[in-house]
Amino acid sequence: MWRSIKLGVRITKYKKKKPFYSLLDHFIDGAARHPDKVLVHFEGLQYTYAEVDQRSSMTARALQEEARLTEGDTVAMFLPNEPAFMWTFLGLAKLGCPAALLNYNIRAKGLLHCFSCCGAKVLITCPELLTAVEEVLPTLTEQGISVFVLSNSCSVPGIRTLSDKVQKASDEPLPRDLRANVTIRSTALYIYTSGTTGLPKAAVVTHERVWAACFIQAAVGVTADDIFYLNLPLYHSAGFLIGFAGGIERGLTLVLKRKFSASQFWDDCRKHNVTVTQYIGETLRYLCNTPPKSSDKQHGVKFAIGNGVRTDIWTEFLNRFGDIQIRELYGATEGNIGFINYTNKIGAVGRINPLHKFFFPHTVIKFDVEKEEPVRNAAGLCIEASRGETGLLVGKVTKRSPFVGYAANKTQTEKKRLRDVVRKGDLFFNTGDLLLIDSENFVYFMDRVGDTFRWKGENVATSEVGDILTAANSVLEANVYGVKVEGHEGRIGMAAVTLKEGEEFDCTDAFKHVVTYLPPYARPRFVRIQPSLEVTGTFKMKKVKLVEEGFNPADIADPLFFLDTDKKNYVPLTEEIYNAIMSREIKL
């Protein structure tokens, strides 16, 4: 609580300071204070604060010249985890340009949507993602979008090289007046989150939100002497805001990985003397599933910061790898309410205290899961859930805890606003999450509501998956949902589908569609063929019963299919396959 008060004082100072003091300014000051300190280790290379500062200035100058960027222009970054991601973002910040962080797994329609909804005029990518960009290049060219690749050469007409221009650019600091109009309420970046529309939504992240999120490391006790292992995607709020931005705020050293690797994790930690790491629930499970070694507790990791770890995995992780302080978080990129478990209470996502309640007023209200709406009393107000009762978490919208919403999507922004909660005329942010607060004020995450489920640490929009399935030759309608699998965090994708008249389920074609148009985590692993799909009075597909019934062929009369990654096809789901899944002989 004392740390939180000090951080609150800092952000209040930044709000009042003229000109506005941004995280970029903090980075520049840090580079001046400790120029030779390593900011990032990456695949055998290392870059100091001074080097990253210089490269970001060179990138900014090259973009200023080649793309004619000016303050306020949005630039889409379609890049994997690599140091260039970091200095490209910082370079854009030096020009006062917001960055849209595109998920490098998305393709085709999804990529175009994400690009267009942030209003970007420029796209920056890398050689390994060129194929994905080429698919949508005709549309981008038509719209007058400038596309740059971080390379010295490129044979694709319409895509310009950037690395060669960066190398020739000056590394002199850029004048501050290039970003003179940036304030704490200005948009710093866009981070994409899945929603009920079937396509990702661009959450608007202001400079105020950047400061608040990057303070999480400080709040849990991380210092400048720590070494932070960053293995989550930089396009995610966890990897970018908590990991990268938080590391800059602390002035520490980052160890960046392209992708998480369970087999390399502890060797990396020992090699680089890592003291702090990040996780999502699946990360810790993968580590627990590796073969035990005598060196399992031989490391210097003190903190693990993340979200979504199950109680059993939490306990197993501590027993096997030693006394690591697990700092489980709850929050959303666009949300105005979050929690940190600072107590080591296994299973909790946080604990409510008076200070937290004052700064982030919130309540848990009764929620009808079947109707997917809050329960209201005769006066039309929401009813607060009792202690120990699962309910919908809502955060009051105030100047101190605002909800900015989504770029170019008023409909989805409005859906997240809940009015007349405690009293007539009030306004709350609807988290869409069911939580429980116990008698000791510990907070527990219970489930998600609506049309999104989480698998492999990613949010999956059910209607986006449904659209892809219905494009398959034999499928008429698709109702997509997530089902629980014993021993796995989150919910895995399943679809109940109806077939076109006279058609049988075309396994090969359906497989081809989902593999071509969906990232691995969003592909429905189970398909259930139904004669008709059950809908509500407002024609909304019913999911609750389907979710409860799961995918056990012994309990379901409908034909079931399983996406077999080895056979590269959908195959009939037999009891033998089901048992192999449940015994984990088949990995999901």
UniProtKB/TrEMBL annotation:
<keyword id="KW-0445">Lipid transport</keyword>
<dbReference type="GO" id="GO:0005789">
    <property type="term" value="C:endoplasmic reticulum membrane"/>
</dbReference>
<dbReference type="Pfam" id="PF13193">
    <property type="entry name" value="AMP-binding_C"/>
</dbReference>
<dbReference type="InterPro" id="IPR045851">
    <property type="entry name" value="AMP-bd_C_sf"/>
</dbReference>
<dbReference type="GO" id="GO:0000166">
    <property type="term" value="F:nucleotide binding"/>
</dbReference>
<dbReference type="GO" id="GO:0044539">
    <property type="term" value="P:long-chain fatty acid import into cell"/>
</dbReference>
<dbReference type="Pfam" id="PF00501">
    <property type="entry name" value="AMP-binding"/>
</dbReference>
<keyword id="KW-1133">Transmembrane helix</keyword>
<dbReference type="InterPro" id="IPR000873">
    <property type="entry name" value="AMP-dep_synth/lig_dom"/>
</dbReference>
<keyword id="KW-0436">Ligase</keyword>
<keyword id="KW-0812">Transmembrane</keyword>
<protein>
    <recommendedName>
        <fullName>long-chain-fatty-acid--CoA ligase</fullName>
        <ecNumber>6.2.1.3</ecNumber>
    </recommendedName>
</protein>
<feature type="domain" description="AMP-dependent synthetase/ligase">
    <location>
        <begin position="31"/>
        <end position="353"/>
    </location>
</feature>
<feature type="domain" description="AMP-binding enzyme C-terminal">
    <location>
        <begin position="465"/>
        <end position="540"/>
    </location>
</feature>
<keyword id="KW-0443">Lipid metabolism</keyword>
<keyword id="KW-0276">Fatty acid metabolism</keyword>
<dbReference type="InterPro" id="IPR042099">
    <property type="entry name" value="ANL_N_sf"/>
</dbReference>
<dbReference type="InterPro" id="IPR025110">
    <property type="entry name" value="AMP-bd_C"/>
</dbReference>
<comment type="similarity">
    <text>Belongs to the ATP-dependent AMP-binding enzyme family.</text>
</comment>
<keyword id="KW-0472">Membrane</keyword>
<keyword id="KW-0547">Nucleotide-binding</keyword>
<keyword id="KW-0813">Transport</keyword>
<dbReference type="GO" id="GO:0005886">
    <property type="term" value="C:plasma membrane"/>
</dbReference>
<dbReference type="GO" id="GO:0005324">
    <property type="term" value="F:long-chain fatty acid transmembrane transporter activity"/>
</dbReference>
<keyword id="KW-1003">Cell membrane</keyword>
<dbReference type="GO" id="GO:0004467">
    <property type="term" value="F:long-chain fatty acid-CoA ligase activity"/>
</dbReference>
<dbReference type="InterPro" id="IPR020845">
    <property type="entry name" value="AMP-binding_CS"/>
</dbReference>
